[in-house]
Amino acid sequence: MYTYRIAVEGAQTGDEGKGVRVVYLAKRAVQLANELASSSSLELPVLVMRYQGGAGAGHTAWIGRVKYALSQVPSGILVKGTYNLMGEGTFIDPTRLVREIQSLREKGVEITPERFGIASNAHMTLDYHVKDDSSNSVRTDGKHKSTGRGIKQTAVDKAGRVGVRFAEFLDREGFIEALSKRFPLGAPEPHSSIENLADSYRPLVAALRDYCVLQEDVLAEDRRFVLLEGAQGFQLDIDKGLYPGVTSSGSATPPISLNKRIGVVKFYESSIGGDRPFIGQIQDSDLEARLRDKWEERGTVTGKPRSLGWLDVVALKHAVKGAELDRFISSCGDRMEDLAREGLPVKIVVAYDVDGVRHTKWDKSFHNRQVIARAKPVFEEHPSWDRFIDGKGLTKPAADFVRRIEELIGVKFVAHGYGPGIDDVLTVEDILFEGVVHR
Q1: 48 and 197 share one domain
Q2: Residue 301 forms part of a structural domain
Q3: How far is residue 50 from each of residues 116, 226, 271, 322, measured CA to CA in Å?
Q4: Is the pLDDT confidence value at 371 over 60?
Q5: Number of domains observed in the structure of the chain
């Protein structure tokens, strides 16, 4: 059976609205799959796979008046007809995952081993990782180093060959051996022994045991569509992003071959965290604060306030090349209506000025943190809009803005999000339909 594979990735610094757009695409994928005779025998024709990141990233989706906040479980779990996988590149926090599963079940979401799996070789974020990271989550001078969820510490253990994989976590003897390699001098406080440390996880082991799967087996099963869900944005990729202010995994590097790579783009920028430049940040602190409150711009997981800025097409061009993005889906076009109410234009960062030299695209020197820190934004202003959508299309100022972005970047938008609901989407091009023509 021909399987159509698409990745949905953040094209900025995260918080672009990836989760709700994955739900939108998953819903459409199930609909299309059910219309195909060759898919009629498939109980779960769509696979949604979270391929990286841990409990420090969050996705939010509204279905009707119910808000779903997901931190580790793939967003596709909200759509019937999907199988959802936490892949081998994810970091599993068992304490938070069990709570998340319970919370979703309380809202009527079906989570069973038939619909949800965890790769056997995914690495575990354990309590000692979170404890080590907790001091880094403190916000100082308007910045913070970490979400405090132990992501970096898990990545360090993984790279240092002293991590614990999910299959080992589930097996007491394997867990004890792995922990002994991590703590050769004995268990950390308050545990009296390595055995005591391992046994403290028994309830979580019991709760998660039935979800263990081999990723290769899941990917080999017959599906009509596979959707890969990124956890963070391109600029937070450990290799390609604004190092060192990045995450600890490859948000720009999906692990399987794909037919399409879709970047999700806000019509403005938002950022949480320090140690990286925010070139297009809004310099009017009062305006930034007003918009932050109106748009509820706080981290889904941390609740920390986000800094806000203007859309940066220099960075987007970098994302298009670095992540090989084929199409864009926009989000938050409706929020820009607030600018019209304040009588303000919409701005775009069209170039960086670095020491008097104008750059309209990413330069190799920008991977030197001292160089990119000196970059100053060059803006282009456009009329704002009091309505984003008019009937079944974009209003003229919104459409003109979109065309300008496409012209600057060379990538087309296939859909525009205009609200938090999964159906708050204006579809321009049905990208999933390409997967149907191969039936």
Answers
A1: no
A2: yes
A3: 11, 11, 22, 20
A4: yes
A5: 3
